[in-house]
């Protein structure tokens, strides 16, 4: 069942490649509880099929990087990109797209969180296995306030511009 507006984000964990060691975070992949990370925060989350894929690399992530300051000015505390890739790939992709420190590149390595959201998709015909659908959502204190799910291979409603307009 697909998550809906007013529902709480499911239990789960995501991994992030940490570039600079800090208190509580070691250098390299670190695993975080979604509930812990989202508590008391407003988070713009967008999910996409895969790192280094064409639309994801050319439009989806760059749009959130470009509009990050405007999103934060509208009350967004953090921006997360979730993909069914490992934390090493997500970290490298974030560096390549100049997203580090702007968008948290969160790895859903086995697709468990995407599946718990009901937003997993079978990309086997492309040789990619189970991935995430393309979507965006706004979570406030772990509760979904906005949800934008793309149909088919479209990129029309999960972009940063739509999220920004929904915050206005």
From TrEMBL:
Keywords from the UniProt entry: Antioxidant, Oxidoreductase, Peroxidase, Redox-active center
Principal EC category: oxidoreductase
EC numbers: 1.11.1.27
Pfam families in the record: Redoxin (PF08534)
GO molecular function, one term: thioredoxin peroxidase activity
Signal peptide, first to last residue: none
Coiled-coil zones: none
A GO CC term attached to the entry: cytoplasm
Superkingdom classification of source: Bacteria
Family assignment from sequence similarity: Belongs to the peroxiredoxin family. Prx5 subfamily.
Name this protein carries in UniProt: Glutathione-dependent peroxiredoxin
Species this protein is from: Undibacterium parvum
Taxonomic placement: Bacteria, Pseudomonadati, Pseudomonadota, Betaproteobacteria, Burkholderiales
